């Protein structure tokens, strides 16, 4: 008997004022997979992720987590299984330790305090993202990369099976882009992340979902999705696709117009 996927999305549609934002979305995710969601601006990446973590209720269709519809569960129950790192965190006027401790919320009753085991979990999460020395710093004073690491630590404390990340590398320099995704990869969680950089997506993701106008155009391995024909058509660019010399997944070289910046 085949094991059921961790997450299954079936015939998902989301309409706003009769306009399709997401349409005919179906795919499944196996435990332990790192799934990248790619596509041009406005293709529906954030809308899809919001539906997956029970923020936006679809017009029709089903999102099954361990074979149970997430909209037939309470938000707090779903939060025990799905952790979220948003694209731009809201202003959080708290200490880094307290932000990380928020990951305990789905597991706590009202007014229930932290146990010794909880504090050990928080300390371990801070250590995993190299933020132990920043535990008593204000979250709002951290750099973008440090804030993302703190939010990943919060997700670790949440002890979820699935981690959903909306453009976690946005506005980060290349060092922090690689650092953040390496740390996430080492967690061993099932991950769904929207990503802008196609070469980063190729390097880190087991599978890619390519969206265009709210529809899935392709879903498969980087080799299956990052083809010259498909990417040039969707992104309206000229490129050459080769094999990366280290990780051997596709490497995209975009054709820039030489001489366009001449004085």
Written overview of the protein:
- The protein has about 260 residues and is of the alpha/beta class.
- About 30% of the residues lie in helices and about 25% in strands.
- It has nine helices and twelve strands.
- It has a six-stranded mixed β-sheet with strand order 6-7-8-3-9-10, with helices on both faces.
- β9 and β10 form a beta hairpin.
- The protein is globular and about 55 Å long.
- The N and C termini lie far apart (about 65 Å).
Instruction: Write down the oligomeric state.
Output: single chain
Principal-axis shape: globular
Helix/strand order: EEEHEEHEHHHEHEHEEHHEE
* Fraction of helical residues: 25-40%
Low-confidence stretches: none
Largest pleated sheet: 6 strands, mixed
Query: Taking Cα atoms only, what radius of gyration do you get, to the nearest Å?
Result: 19 Å
Strand order of the largest sheet: 6-7-8-3-9-10
The mean pLDDT is: 92
Blueprint (SSEs and pairs):
Layout: E1 7-16, E2 19-29, E3 34-38, H1 45-52, E4 60-65, E5 68-69, H2 75-79, E6 82-85, H3 96-101, H4 116-128, H5 144-158, E7 162-166, H6 174-186, E8 190-194, H7 198-204, E9 207-212, E10 215-220, H8 222-225, H9 228-235, E11 239-243, E12 250-254
Helix pairs in contact: 4-5, 5-6
Which descriptors apply to this entry?
alpha/beta, 263 residues, 4-stranded antiparallel beta sheet, 9 helices, 12 strands
